[in-house]
Design a protein that fits this description.
By secondary structure, the protein is mainly α. The chain has 18 helices and no strands.
Amino acid sequence: MTMTANDHSADIKTRPAWPALTALAGATLLASLGISIASVALPTLAAVFSASIQDVQWVVLAYLISVTVTIVTAGWLGDLYGHHRVLIAGLGVFALSSVLCAAAPTLGTLIAGRAVQGIGGAILMALPLSIARDTVAKDRLGTAMGLFGTMSAIGTALGPSLGGLLIAVFGWRSAFILLAGVAVLLIGVGLATIPASPTRADRRKTRLDWPGAALLGAALVAYAAAMAGWNAGLLLPLAIFAFAVFFLVERRAETPLVPLETLHDRGTWTALAMNVIVATVMMSTLVVGPFFLSFALRLDVALVGIVMAVGPVIAALSGVPAGRATDRFGAQRVLVAGLFTILVGLIGLAVLPRLFGIAGYVTALALLTPGFQLFLAANNTAVMMTSPENRRGTMSALLGLSRNLGFMTGASAMAAVFAAAAGSGEVGDLSAAATGDAFTTTFLVAAGLMPAALVLAFLGRSASKTRTH
């Protein structure tokens, strides 16, 4: 029997939200672990399969590209067939592909398994936000968004240490066995706690937008490859062309993958654009930070790892408080506060580490990271609060896609800024002063992007007021 929207609303009012949030938070954690736990295995995989660094990097890249390419389709399928049903299916895909990865006899098989695992990861990233919007009271939605930010940060911080321990004791296959086990556990928890969501009444008459999905996938693959440094002069124009054709196709599609009328809403497109900018500048800490710590402050590898772990730890501690602040003070106020805090943190990173070394670096991170969590909780809450009920999965997926695009752009653009500021020499040959100068330049450039995000925030705020009145 098909559940109607009224039945669903009555159901969620009689069920406590926190059991369901536990399953959703676990799904968010698992998707994040899928990235970080595999990264630490790359040196071992290179030795086991006698492969180059460039080859084993595809163990991570295959997952990331697969997530990015399929995340919008995952959200669309959730809207069509029910978020609960598709999330459980995504956990099943993640579990089975993790088993495939653990049993992989060759590097090629492992990379293929990771690509399939990325499809499951896309669902785990796309649907928790939309399910939370249906499950949690409006005045507690910000807290739920903050919880997801915390779980994502915990997954990022926990993956390297947990993966390293498992690989050292049981071998590299044990890391993927762990992922499969967690996915199976979450299937049970999700089936028991997440209320069933309604499917669209017109789903039998609705055709899947495969042309739109194929064009968007092609555009995203080309963009990802260009950002990774593969013939950007050819691939970047190809990506732009594919995006343009995608939008033309979507205008005429009967059931478009991305409803363009939604993107015409000022509050929506400003939120997505801010997501890209903020993710771009946040990626600079991961891309440029290790070079500064290694070559300017002359820290050994172990100490670099400890200092780099400070960011995810602070993010894990500040996620839920950021969500509670969103509930208390409103999404728009907290969003602007988060952007200002990020701006101050970026300026701090440009200046404080040069003056105070490790203490300055950690202090700047203590400003920057909570600002990111404030922005993330508030921006996600603002979008999900105003999303049409039959498009919440798609909007949640677009938030994830815009963030991933920002991360890919930041990994390429911020590394290019650092390299240009450092000069044409090899990084290992740079002096501490030259490395420090390049580091400062990079974060001043990153800080220079934040006024654009603040302008977008005020544009989105005025749009919100217009809708209210």
